Amino acid sequence: MIRVAIIGTGSMAHYHALEYQKLENVKIVAACDINKENLYGFQKKYKIPNIYTSIDELLTDCEVDAISNVTPDNYHKEIAIKSLERGKHIFSEKPLAENYQDALEMYEVAKSKKLINMVNLSYRNSSGFQELVNVVHTGELGSIKHVEASYYQSWLTSKYWGDWKELPQWLWRLSKAHGSNGVLGDLGVHIIDFVTYPVGRIKRVNSLLKTFIDKGKRVGEYILDANDSFISMVEFENGATGTIVSTRFATGYRNRLDLKIFCNKGGVCITLEHGLDSNSYKITRDINTENMYWDTVYVESTPNNIERFIHSIISGENGQPDFKVGADVQKIIDSCIESSEKQVWIDI
Per CATH, which fold does 2-122 belong to? Predict the structure, then answer.
């Protein structure tokens, strides 16, 4: 039996708890949060035997094999390193850290301790995306030439997830002081992995980050200074070009991610909307006739990230995406920030 402790009991923690409880060889033995109201409600809902308001107390007092880190971004490094130093496997929410150096340090500690480490880049849960990646990697579509990727949300203009001006779970995402890198750190981390996993490493970026001050500059303790939209032109190491964009002002789209990869012998594309479980993608190979069409390909389900994390602990072989992937994505995010500040291309 693998004993898991969940650190942080906000909205995303409920997904972690539900997924762990589906697995026969896993038991959630503890939860930890400084927000006692959230903590008590979480304990009651999932019947968790032990609760703590301090990660140090949990690591000292509780018999636990693995940590699920669902805290805000600025706590990721501290919790990960403390857990790894105490010999715990760790599954961390994204982004892995607030900057590349912290993410790299987390990876190096995990590597030195030879412990299982994974980051929840959750769109890898899509079986359609996993098969799209396999098709691109076979080379059957030829060389990659151009990529388009977008991630659209609109909770700054719509109230489908509640009124952002009244909810800390959204307000902290708009505030640098609360550990947010804005939409680039929140959604960009997903879409950058969504692009680089099938296409390969990015060579250089030219980015524009925008904070829309007309939405307001402050709500209570939250200074609303993190970016709301970003646009990045990218060049990959394999020579392909592309664009990566994201915004929270995409009125009409609740939670939509699109990826198109164009090669010299065909192309693939996928759209994920609302849920993360798309079991299909589209492909075209019709390049020698006047007809153009896209075939929809349906595939069987693949294990999600939490299932892969537990399997990794059992097998001893670290699954993907690991902390190295998380650090690589964070390096690109840091480069996008630098590019926007200096208004120049930045080599990765």
Answer: Rossmann fold (3.40.50)
